[in-house]
Amino acid sequence: MTAQHERLRIGGKPLRADAERTVHTILEAAERVLLVDPTATMEQIAEAAGVARTTVHRRFATREALIDALTRWATAQFAAAVDGAVSDAVPPLVVLYRVTADVLRVKIGWGFAMDRAGSSADPEISRVHAEVLAECDRFLRRAQATGLLRSDVDIVWARRCYYALIHEATKGGTADADIDTLTTLIVDTLLRGFGTAAAQSTGS
Fold first, then answer.
1. Where are the domains of the chain?
2. Cα–Cα distance for residue pair 121/102, rounded to 1 Å
């Protein structure tokens, strides 16, 4: 993945800085409004964004086009969060905390859009998520090679559990959640589970 995910594109063309700021304002408002009311209208979104309805329609021909752009934008932020956190120059445990916290911020901050991205048929969104998945597996293999994960751990299973932990941590009343607390909870659960040392010894 590259920094290209950090730029929003409409109709395949990069936007000017001022136009991108306007679009970003509209998308942030759309996320807030649609999270509360998924049936909200373009007019309600325009009001929340503090712009004229014609401005929204000039950028997005239809409500569906706006929601598609919102989903792509959130996906780009998700990919950028992973890009910015994962590094072979940093100890895996530090990376694990960093990437977990950054992904949580995106998933909580763009909850409506990220939920929609999970079921999107957009090939670009699917491609980005596939790249993130591959990067996650690569990182987990590095964590295993350096001793952070046990040598007998199945990497695909570890990644599925990690994804599930993040998913559950972002559900239900997390808008005001403490990211550091959630991050610690996820990492602790992934690395230590719920069993006591005695139970782990018995199971080995």
1. 12-61, 72-193
2. 25
45 is written with which tokens?
Answer: 């979104």
11-54 pLDDT tens trace: 455 556 677 789 999 999 999 999 999 999 999 999 999 999 99
Place of tokens 């610690």: 184
The model's pTM = 0.84
Architecture in CATH of 72-193: Orthogonal Bundle (1.10)
Helix (H) or strand (E) segment spanning residue 123: helix 123-145
Round to whole Å and give the CA distance between 99 and 47.
34
DSSP character at residue 104: H
Q: Which helix (H) or strand (E) holds 13?
A: strand 13-14
Token digits for 94? 């530090």
Residue of 86, 78, 134, 64 whose CA lies nearest to 108: 78
| Residues 85-123 pLDDT 10s | 999 999 999 999 999 999 999 999 999 999 999 888 889
Question: Which DSSP category does 148 fall into?
Answer: S
Q: What is the CA radius of gyration of the chain?
A: 19
The CATH code that applies to domain 12-61 is 1.10.10
User: Among 85, 103, 81, which residue's Cα sits nearest to residue 94?
Assistant: 85
